[in-house]
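Much of our argument rests on the idea that a fold can be written as discrete symbols. The record that follows shows the chain in one-letter code together with its fold in token form.
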Amino acid sequence: MNHILNSMIEAKHVDENVCDEILMEFDDYLDNVALKHSDFSEFPPENSRVAEFFYETMNTSKYRNLWKVVEMLLLLSHGQATVEKGFSINKKVEVENMKELSYVSQRPVCDYINSTGDSIHNIKITNIMRQKPNF
């Protein structure tokens, strides 16, 4: 918890003056909730959400500062959204028997269109765009 709080202080997400309270709340939570209730050892991750579980056990006035920290941790990006979005875009532009070069070249076009805030499905394809380039 000390390492997490130090990182959050550096990122200016947590006020340094509140850290002692958070650490005391964390110790109390471990001693009086986590270690004494069977909910923790019997938590079924396959059909329950961790965020809801912590919300139910921690979102009280007694642990309000600790809950704010845990909530921020639960909201952190896991870094897979960009990758998954890329797979989704590839699937949208995929056509059977497409040559690899055209498949690879369509991807930057889709990325650019998405970066402008528009959708690849809203772009009007003109006859000039359909013509084969003279390289």
Remarks:
- The mean pLDDT is 77.
- The CA atoms of residues 84 and 90 lie 10 Å apart.
- The chain is about 60% helix and 0% strand.
- The helical segments are 2-10, 19-34, 38-41, 50-58, 64-74, 81-93, 100-115, 127-130.
